[in-house]
Design brief:
It contains eight helices and four strands. With 306 residues, it is an alpha+beta fold.
Length: 306
């Protein structure tokens, strides 16, 4: 058994970003809920409830990020890196449940619209734009490399847009007396957030069940390995996510000549890292295949992620 592991990639530290984001959003939830109750605005109350779920989501994401930094031990040889995937999944699930409740209440309110105070709604939602934009910017740097951080970023960016929509709804209700616009705005909020969360939910669920990360095309990995000198076939190729920012891979290389020195393994490991972002590589070399090939790799045109 020959193995190569790249441990040089260190997860970025977002402790300050999480602490600031949670503090800002929690304070805003209290303000928004109070004024939503005071002026009887479902849009503000709904957005406050959603922002509260975002605070919970940020806490979960932070907890996942901290857990992923725990060192491996004899009981958890990969550490707790998968906690970031679980945090992203729970985050998405909470948002979907919250938006379902919001849509249900908005549908009832739409049947009998109640008067609202447009000025208060506009001011409070305007504060929300500032808070959510600042929080989103805190996570912008890691949105492309970590699904957990991406979840936090997308939620905050979507909230900034939603708050802008609430400002518009409040203005129209103030100037034209369209009280029905408040529950309609709530329904739009729910639709926008569900649309943005669906992808996060699908990706995190996929990774929880050891799905191949979206950034990796399995047959391309197979082709790269089979192009290495001396490799006749590749068996038992498996690629999965250790966490939201690290990928692992194992494979059997059939090499009839049996030549696989350190230079060969180093070259293979570096190519897998550079081309596919795979950090943890384990390669087993055999002269004669003694395992049954995985069916997923039989036809090159097959479904690489079945």
């Amino acid at each position: 058994m020959s193995a190569g592991h790249d441990h040089s990639r260190t997860a970025a530290n977002y402790n300050a970003a999480f602490a600031i984001g949670i503090g800002l959003n929690l304070a805003f939830v209290i303000i928004e809920a109070f004024y939503g109750w005071k002026v009887n605005s479902l849009a503000l109350l709904a957005d406050a409830g959603h922002n509260l779920s975002d605070v919970i989501g940020l806490v979960l994401a932070w907890g996942g990020a901290l857990a992923s930094r725990l060192r491996p031990d004899a009981r958890h040889t990969y550490g707790w890196k998968r906690s970031t995937i679980l945090a992203a999944f729970i985050n998405a699930l909470l948002l979907l449940v919250a938006m379902g409740s919001l849509a249900w209440e908005a549908a009832h309110r739409l049947r009998s619209p109640e008067p609202i105070e447009g000025v208060t709604i506009m001011v409070v939602a305007g504060v929300g734009i500032v808070v959510n934009t600042i929080t989103a910017l805190l996570f912008m740097r890691g949105r492309d490399s970590d699904l957990n951080i991406r979840g936090a970023f997308l939620h905050m960016a979507a909230d900034a847009l939603v708050s802008a929509g609430v400002v518009v709804a409040g203005g129209l209700a103030l100037w034209f007396g369209w009280n029905w616009l408040d529950p309609v705005a709530s329904l739009v909020i729910a639709a926008v957030i569900v649309a943005g969360t669906a992808s996060l939910f699908k990706q995190s669920l996929h990774l929880l069940f050891d799905g191949v990360p979206a950034s990796v095309e399995l047959h391309s990995v197979q082709a790269m390995l089979e192009s290495l000198p001396g490799v006749a076939r590749v068996h038992d190729l498996h690629v999965w996510a250790m966490g939201t920012s690290e990928i692992a891979m194992t494979a059997h290389l059939v090499m009839p000549q049996g030549h696989a020195d350190d230079a060969f393994l180093r070259n293979a490991t570096e190519q897998l890292h550079d081309q596919f972002g795979i950090d943890h590589v384990t390669l087993q070399v055999m002269q004669v295949a003694f395992t049954q090939p995985c069916s997923v790799l039989a036809p090159q045109g097959g479904d690489a992620k079945a």
